[in-house]
Amino acid sequence: MAPLVLMVGLLVGSGPWLTAHAFDTPARLTDAEFWKLTVDISEPNGQFQSDNLLSNEMGFQTIIPDLKKMVKSGVYMGVGPEQNFTYIAALQPKMVFITDIRRGNLELHLMYKALFEMATDRADFVGMLFSKKRPEGLTVDSPVGQIFTKYDAAPISAEAYDNTWKRIVDHLTKSPHTFPLATDDIDGIKYVFDAFYTYGTALNYRSSGGSIGAGGNYATYEALMITNDGAGAERSYLASDELFKVIKDLETKNLLVPTVGNFAGPKALRAVGKYIREHGESVQAFYLSNVEDYLTGGLWQQFCNNVASLPLTEASTFIFGARGNGGGRGGGLASWYRPMMKDVKDYNCKAE
Questions:
Q1: pLDDT of residue 154 exceeding 90
Q2: What is the CB neighbour count within 10 angstroms for residue 10?
Q3: Are 130 and 151 in contact (CB under 8 A)?
Q4: What is the dihedral of CA 291, 225, 98, 61, to 10 degrees?
Q5: Is 332 left (phi over 0), alpha (psi -120 to 50) or beta?
Q6: How many other β-carbons are positioned within 10 Å of the β-carbon of residue 272?
Q7: How confident is the model over 198-243, as pLDDT tens digits?
Q8: Distance between CA 190 and CA 182 in Å, rounded?
Q9: Would you call 21 exposed, middle or buried from its count of C-beta atoms within 10 A (0-12, 13-18, 19+)?
Q10: Per-residue pLDDT tens for 114-144?
Q11: Residue 41 pairs with which residues in a beta bridge?
């Protein structure tokens, strides 16, 4: 009993952590369960200054060796686009919730969901993502750099675009899934898919959302995928078949759940925490990017209180985008992390 008592004592958050369904993390969700969870947790669509179709944090892999040593099993939470996949592949959580203020991010992740599930391997995935026919010579073991080099030399294909777009819609709404996507959501997914078709592997943070031509040194999709952790190890979710399959497996089992919510809002984060707690789990890691920069005034305290409502352990870890290290976010700066429970205590966050 002693280890169990210790574990319960380490957890924070409102309400009882152990329930009649303790340790009942789902092995998979049905389509109905997945969609109901997305709808029930989500808040109304919000606004942000950009589309965020792609991250801009070249140093995001640098902390992965530390995270793999510190972070324990549990449920991953995050915000934003593809950088989550790399952290998820490294940490191998039991379940994932991606919460973002924009419904466009949910639509982005629905596109990714279809592509992960349809792809036979990484090369197949990259070809569908950028609407290009698969070049000869790529195998399941091809290095990620070689995959992108070959696709860079391949022309975009209107035929590949048409075929893949039809497959995405059918995959999500007919078979194997039957999600009741509204017309606006299908249009939103197409907007995202069109951006990848238009900009290709050179897609960057400023490629869409009214910011075309804006200044700044922004990382391309290819650069983010072929970079390493600073010690030579390639850790992007496309770096190996093994890492890719971690995401593919979660997506196929409906265990990567995209939701809409404001971090300082009254519902989304607390609803995610309630679900995690009711299934006998704790938050493994929470990727914030630089959302804290936008939670000014009373919004930060509301966010802080929302975090206090989550089921946490001493190993639960915040992950941040590169900032505060002598420059902006566009270069090779390292990302960083800190214990979630320390913040809850230091800032006197209350699960009101």
A1: yes
A2: 15
A3: yes
A4: -60
A5: alpha
A6: 25
A7: 999 999 888 876 444 444 578 899 999 999 999 999 999 999 999 9
A8: 13
A9: exposed
A10: 999 999 999 999 999 999 999 999 999 999 9
A11: none
Residue among 236, 318, 288 nearest 58 (CA): 236
Residue 123 is which amino acid? A
State both tokens at 231.
Answer: 């010690």
Q: Is 205 helix (H, G, I), strand (E, B) or coil?
A: coil
Residue whose C-alpha is closest to residue 205's, from 263, 103, 289: 289
Tokens of 303: 């966010």
Q: What is the largest distance, in Å, between two alpha-carbon atoms of the chain?
A: 62
Question: Which residues are CB-contacts of 8 (< 8 A; sequence separation ≥ 6)?
Answer: 17, 18
Q: Tokens 């944090």 belong to which residue?
A: 57
Residue 292: DSSP 8-state:
G
Q: Are strands 95-100 and 75-78 parallel, antiparallel or unpaired?
A: parallel
Q: How large a percentage of the chain has pLDDT more than 70?
A: 87
What SS3 class is residue 284? strand
Average pLDDT, the chain: 88
Distance CA 198, CA 200 (A): 6
Q: Are 70 and 315 in contact (CB under 8 A)?
A: yes
**For residue 256, what are the β-bridge partners?**
96
Q: What is the pLDDT of residues 294-348, one digit of tens each?
A: 888 889 999 999 999 999 999 999 999 865 433 333 334 568 899 999 999 998 9
Q: Which of 8, 13, 77 is nearest to 351 (CA)?
A: 13
